[in-house]
């Protein structure tokens, strides 16, 4: 006779239940072939160990490989070539085609992705067959393969056609000039120029002042007469202070 079959178990209230508890012995799952392991702690502990190994490996990779950081974003740089994360490259490539860009951006950004993901959501409701084999479910299988092939193809095209050399150059982090911010020249620069050109000369509403290639006389002329969006007479100090400021700006070079 198998255990638990054809037998009835009757509890006796005179016997304390705690005397029969065996918390360290897993339950008997012999009635369920192939599932004889207790969930707690055996199965759950193994899952935690696998998760811990994965987490340690991931943390090791983040320590061994520095993140591909770029320089501080400049909203005035219209020549910047953006590149999204790898899992959005297929959408990024889709927006490069004429039928999904320019005046048709809405089609590439909303209509096509919306139809594709909407069809994926509706696939289980359209193909409601009981079969588990892919060959028995042609609609769901075919649509999933089409979606997968489209994503792989667009991602590959995005990687193959992207100008990686130009992207690396434009995002390169360049150390700015080392300047003594307690010096007289910087104190002349701070109230008159830092608002537009940044406290570290990186450029804010105005351009960067690092490596302009201008001489002190040319810088002085721009400060006095203005140029482009820069108004004339931005500096109100003496001629001697103006000369020091012009020489200071002209000497700013990248390290």
From TrEMBL:
<dbReference type="InterPro" id="IPR051811">
    <property type="entry name" value="Cytochrome_c550/c551-like"/>
</dbReference>
<keyword id="KW-0249">Electron transport</keyword>
<dbReference type="GO" id="GO:0020037">
    <property type="term" value="F:heme binding"/>
</dbReference>
<feature type="transmembrane region" description="Helical">
    <location>
        <begin position="48"/>
        <end position="65"/>
    </location>
</feature>
<dbReference type="GO" id="GO:0016020">
    <property type="term" value="C:membrane"/>
</dbReference>
<feature type="domain" description="Cytochrome c">
    <location>
        <begin position="166"/>
        <end position="253"/>
    </location>
</feature>
<keyword id="KW-0812">Transmembrane</keyword>
<dbReference type="Pfam" id="PF00032">
    <property type="entry name" value="Cytochrom_B_C"/>
</dbReference>
<dbReference type="InterPro" id="IPR009056">
    <property type="entry name" value="Cyt_c-like_dom"/>
</dbReference>
<keyword id="KW-0472">Membrane</keyword>
<dbReference type="GO" id="GO:0016491">
    <property type="term" value="F:oxidoreductase activity"/>
</dbReference>
<keyword id="KW-0349">Heme</keyword>
<dbReference type="InterPro" id="IPR027387">
    <property type="entry name" value="Cytb/b6-like_sf"/>
</dbReference>
<dbReference type="GO" id="GO:0046872">
    <property type="term" value="F:metal ion binding"/>
</dbReference>
<dbReference type="InterPro" id="IPR036150">
    <property type="entry name" value="Cyt_b/b6_C_sf"/>
</dbReference>
<feature type="transmembrane region" description="Helical">
    <location>
        <begin position="138"/>
        <end position="156"/>
    </location>
</feature>
<dbReference type="InterPro" id="IPR036909">
    <property type="entry name" value="Cyt_c-like_dom_sf"/>
</dbReference>
<keyword id="KW-0479">Metal-binding</keyword>
<keyword id="KW-1133">Transmembrane helix</keyword>
<keyword id="KW-0408">Iron</keyword>
<protein>
    <submittedName>
        <fullName>C-type cytochrome</fullName>
    </submittedName>
</protein>
<feature type="transmembrane region" description="Helical">
    <location>
        <begin position="104"/>
        <end position="126"/>
    </location>
</feature>
<dbReference type="Pfam" id="PF13442">
    <property type="entry name" value="Cytochrome_CBB3"/>
</dbReference>
<keyword id="KW-0813">Transport</keyword>
<feature type="domain" description="Cytochrome b/b6 C-terminal region profile">
    <location>
        <begin position="29"/>
        <end position="156"/>
    </location>
</feature>
<dbReference type="GO" id="GO:0009055">
    <property type="term" value="F:electron transfer activity"/>
</dbReference>
<dbReference type="InterPro" id="IPR005798">
    <property type="entry name" value="Cyt_b/b6_C"/>
</dbReference>
């Amino acid at each position: 006779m198998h255990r638990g079959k054809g037998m009835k178990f009757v509890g006796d209230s005179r016997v304390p239940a705690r005397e029969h508890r065996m918390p360290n012995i897993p339950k008997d799952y012999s009635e369920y072939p192939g599932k004889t392991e207790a969930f707690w702690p055996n199965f759950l502990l193994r899952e935690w160990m696998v998760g811990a190994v994965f987490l340690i490996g991931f943390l090791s990779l983040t320590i061994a490989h520095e993140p591909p950081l770029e320089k501080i974003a400049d909203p005035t740089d219209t020549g910047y070539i953006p590149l999204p994360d790898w899992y959005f490259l297929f959408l990024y490539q889709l927006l490069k085609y004429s039928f999904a860009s320019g005046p048709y951006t809405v089609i590439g950004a909303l209509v096509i992705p919306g139809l594709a993901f909407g069809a994926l959501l509706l696939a289980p409701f359209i193909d409601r067959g009981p079969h588990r084999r892919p060959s028995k479910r042609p609609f769901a299988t075919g649509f999933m393969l089409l979606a997968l092939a489209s994503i792989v193809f667009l991602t590959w095209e995005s990687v193959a056609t992207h100008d990686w050399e130009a992207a690396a150059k434009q995002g390169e982090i360049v150390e700015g000039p080392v300047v003594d911010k307690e010096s007289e020249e910087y104190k002349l620069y701070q109230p008159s120029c830092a608002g537009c050109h940044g406290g570290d000369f990186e450029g804010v509403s105005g351009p960067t002042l690092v490596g302009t290639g201008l001489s002190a006389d040319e810088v002085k002329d721009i400060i006095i007469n203005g140029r482009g969006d820069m108004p004339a007479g931005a500096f109100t100090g003496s001629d001697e202070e103006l000369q020091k400021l012009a020489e200071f700006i002209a000497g700013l070079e990248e390290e």
